[in-house]
Structures are given as C-alpha cells and as structure tokens.
Amino acid sequence: MKTPSTHPSPSLATELRSLPRPVWVLAIGVFINRFGSFVIPFLTLYMTKSGYSPGDIWKTFAALAAGGMTSAILGGWLADRIGRKNTMSIALISAAASILALWQADNLTSYVIAAFCVGLSHGAYHPAASSLLADLVPPERRVIAFGLSRFAINLGFGGGMAAGGFLAEISYDLLFVGDALTTGIYGAISFFLLPHGLKGVSGKASGWMPALISIWGNKAFVAMFFSSLFGVFLFFHWGGAIALLIKDLGYPERVYGMLMAFNGFLIVAVELPLSHWVKRFNARRVIGVGFFLCGLGVALCGFATGWIWLGVALIIFTVGEMISMPVSGAYISELAPEDMRGRYNGVIGLTWHFGHAVAPGLGLLLYQTNPAALWWGSLGCGAASLFIITLTKRAA
C-alpha cells in the first residue's frame, strides 16, 4: 500500500478533468441531497422549541447513532456483497421515508423510533458511497475525488443551512419536507445514473470475520480508527452545545444558520486547492494536525462573547476539517483491501455514529453543568487524535 504521493502532481484543473463521469454524477447527487439536509443540524433547536429537555434530545441523538452503528455494519457488508449502487439507492429512499416519519413524531418514543430509522438508513449509505468513490478512481486521484465530493457536500450544506435558518423561522415543517424530497431525488440519481462499483464477493470472504481479522492485523487502520474516534466528537458539538451557546448569546436561528453556512462556503472556496497542496505530505500527520485544529476551534468557543469570536473559532475548526477529511477518505481506501473496502468503511463509520450517540448529549450536559470541561475536553480530544495517529507507523 502507498500513502498519497509525495511527487510533484499535475495541476488541480488537470486532476479534476481526469475524473470519470460517474464521480461528477455522484457529486451532483450529493449536492442536491446536502442542500436539503436541514433536519439533523436544526433538530436540537427544533426539539428545544417543542419543549423537550436536553436529556430527551440526547436520547433522540443516541437513537440516531444506534441506528447508524447498526447499519454501518450491515451497509459495509451490503456494499461488498450486492454492490455500492444498490446499497446507496435502498438507503437513500429509506432515509427519505424516515425523515417524514421524524416529522410526524409527537412524543419522545416516536422521536426515538424515527431517529433510529433515520440513522439506520444514513448509516448504510456512507460505506457504499465512500467505497464507490474509491472504486472509480486510481489511488493518486483519490484525495482530489474525495475533495470534489466534499466540495459538493459543503456547497449544498452552505446554501442549505443559510436557507434552513430562514425556513426554520417560517415553519420547521418546511425543513422536513425539503429534506425528504432532496434525499429521494438523490436516491433516484443513484439508481438510474451511477455504476454498481465492485460487487459479487461470495462465500466466506463476504462475511465479517475475515474482514475483522484483516482489520485487527492492520495496525495503521486501527490507529486511524481510534484517532477518528476522538476527532469526530468535535464535529457534533456544533449541532448541540454550540448551537445553544449561540442562542444564549442572544442570537436568533438565522445567525446559527449563517455561521454553519460560512463553514460550508469556506470549504467550497478553499478545500480543493488546499487538498491538492497537502496531499504531498505524510497522510497521517495531515490527518492528525487537522483533528487537532478542529479541537482548538471548538475549545475557543468557550471564550466567545459575540459572533465575531465564534467566527474566528469556526475558521480554525474549518481549516482542520479541510485538511483532514479528504486525506482521511483517501487514506482509508488505501489501507483497505479492495474486496473488503465496504466493510472497512463501515468500521470507520462506527466512529462517526458513536460520536453521534455520545457527543451531542454529553456536550449539552457539560455545557449546562461544567462548560470549562467541555471546552478543555474538546482540545484534549484533538490532541489525543493527533498523538494516536502520528505515533503509529504504517505497515509497508
């Protein structure tokens, strides 16, 4: 296996032109879907406005994560067994239906059940999508391919969060309907326009035990797993404790939406050329430094007295996100054997779902009882992520 190349590379424009058509189709579908991904970022504010306690919100996010952890295992297996396209299409159509079910929830039990279904469908999608992207391009183009996908994600996210903040002030119902509609459209694009990717693994090789044996023996991947486990905690505080911090500072929903939109637009403007530049460096160090900057950005929110300081903290966090995420996607694809790529991506997806289960509720609890522990703990998570991944040498 090879780390991202350290040799002089073609220009960014040349690399983008070299990407195959399905990569661009995937990017268009991701943009449409992410533009309408209103519900989860605003769910804390929506449930708070509806009278639910932080504990209730934590239970809902925990159910969302439990569904994701369940389907990360199932989705990784399906991606290797029935193909990436089939898994993505099933997951996206199911996600649209689940968002509508969440919209109709009228008590905590129904919120928890619907959130579990949302997590179940979204969790099955991600291993297949990451695996398909890796299938479509050679190793030396993967950082740029993942960067293009994140460009589409954040262009959609930035526009969607800006629109979502205004829509939420009109009616939260618009957020649920828009989310379900755009997710369904992406499901149709996946089914009709994307290739299957690798599939057809059969017999014992398609099971989880061979993959787990491979994963446990892959020390570089194990280090990436635990580094990610600490790093992803940092991402979920923006939809939990920091969202409430913004409200406590006296700002309306539109300010939260605009700050999140700024994150997306900054990534759109800078991440692709930044990814093209950082891919020449050691992937582990890039990922580790990126996660540390994310921790620093979250920690600085603890000193905020207004939106300008929050904006500075968000910029630092976003720089960390921009240098770590595309490189980590390509790095994981390189560490995974080709016929186990879906299951490897499913395992790394567990870190995100675990973060979903723990970080929002824990962050809200600490924010209300011991804010200093939240902010310093976030810095500690970033440092732990850097320490873990940079101290582990990759196998040849």
Please tell me about this protein's structure.
This protein has 396 residues and is mostly helical. The chain has one domain: MFS general substrate transporter like domains (Growth Hormone, Chain: A, Up-down Bundle). Helix content is 80%, strand content 0%. Helix 2 runs antiparallel to helix 8 (173-193), helix 4 (54-81) runs antiparallel to helix 5 and helix 4 (54-81) runs parallel beside helix 6 (108-136). The radius of gyration is 20 Å and the shape is globular. The protein starts with 11 loop residues before the first helix and ends in a 6-residue tail after the last helix. Mean pLDDT is 84; it is low at 1-6 and 201-205.
How would you concisely characterize the structure shown here?
The protein has about 400 residues and is mainly α. The protein has 17 helices and no strands. Helix content is about 80%, strand content about 0%.
Q: How is the secondary structure organized here?
A:
Layout (H helix, E strand, L loop, with lengths): L11 H7 L2 H15 L3 H11 L4 H28 L2 H20 L4 H29 L5 H29 L2 H21 L14 H10 L1 H13 L1 H4 L4 H8 L4 H26 L4 H18 L6 H29 L5 H29 L1 H20 L6
Helix pairs in contact: 2-7, 2-8, 4-5, 4-6, 4-16, 5-6, 5-8, 6-16, 7-13, 7-15, 10-14, 10-16, 10-17, 13-15, 14-15, 14-17, 16-17
Which range best describes the helical content: under 10%, 10-25%, 25-40%, 40-55%, 55-70% or over 70%?
Answer: over 70%
- Low-confidence spans: 1-6, 201-205
Count of alpha/pi helices: 17
Radius of gyration, in Å, reads 20 Å
Report the structural category.
mainly alpha
Per CATH, the class reads Mainly Alpha
CATH architecture: Up-down Bundle
CATH topology: Growth Hormone, Chain: A
Q: Classify the oligomer.
A: single chain
Average of per-residue pLDDT values: 84
Apparent shape:
globular
Number of strands: 0
